[in-house]
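[Q] Does anyone have a clean structure-token version of this?
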Amino acid sequence: ILTIMSLIKTDLKNALRLNFLCALAIISLGNLGNAETLVIEASMDTSLYSEGSLSNGQGISIFAGRTKEGNDRRGLVKFDLEGQLPQTASINSVTLALYVSKVPIGGGPDTFFRIHRLTRDWGEGASDAGDIGGKGAPAEAGDATWQDSELGVQAWTQPGGDFDPEFSSEEVISGLGFYDWIGDGLLADVNAWLQDPASNYGWIIVGEQSLGSAARFESRHYWNEVQRPRLVIDYTNAWAGYPIDEDGVTVDTGDFLGRVYIEHDPWIYVYSLSKYIYMPVDGMEATGTWIWLP
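[A] Here you go.
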């Protein structure tokens, strides 16, 4: 009788395992296809003016390119990423969207505007160049200028901003409206900032250095929220995991299942879910994380 009961119990467990693994395959494929989108507004932006100690920290516009008088403009923009994404997110793509509200009279030539990763912190002070903004306003304490990353605090190593010489993305501007900067460079920047939030200094917008190539973009202070700078992140919420305890045989899953012994039978009945959860030892990753399906 004991032998028969043991066989029945074994067959039942095997059937449960088979059913669960089939369901696991279906659920896994479904989860992998469910991308989500996060839209973030800029946390800081301003403009640099090559003529001198000028800025536009609170202005409604950002400028980049070269004016017809031969003066350079560069725009700075930063997005705060901390706490915006789940820790298990896997980013698929990144898009920087900027609205162009003015180009040279007559439209001007089609010009490249490149996005570079900044390598030094900078400030957004109280300067405000008004609705037009193209000439800038006298910089105030903490403002970023052509010479200073933060006026009264620190200077740029190179006038005009410290940034990676290799651009992260580029886009041709030929008229008014929204433009999207995309590509692996932006994706790499965002992933790096998520790994090291302290290194997130944002991006600098650098236009071609040809006369009359300057363009105006709406800033985070612009009255129409729809036209403000935004960062669009497409991501997939990946599998979650728990670190293995120092004893090598238990995992503390907190409120989910409490402390679990991974060397024991991997089938665990969860009353709140009214089903068995399969947690095999071979689900352990080389990094010391035990993967489970919530």
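[Q] Thanks! Anything notable?
[A] The chain has a mean pLDDT of 80.
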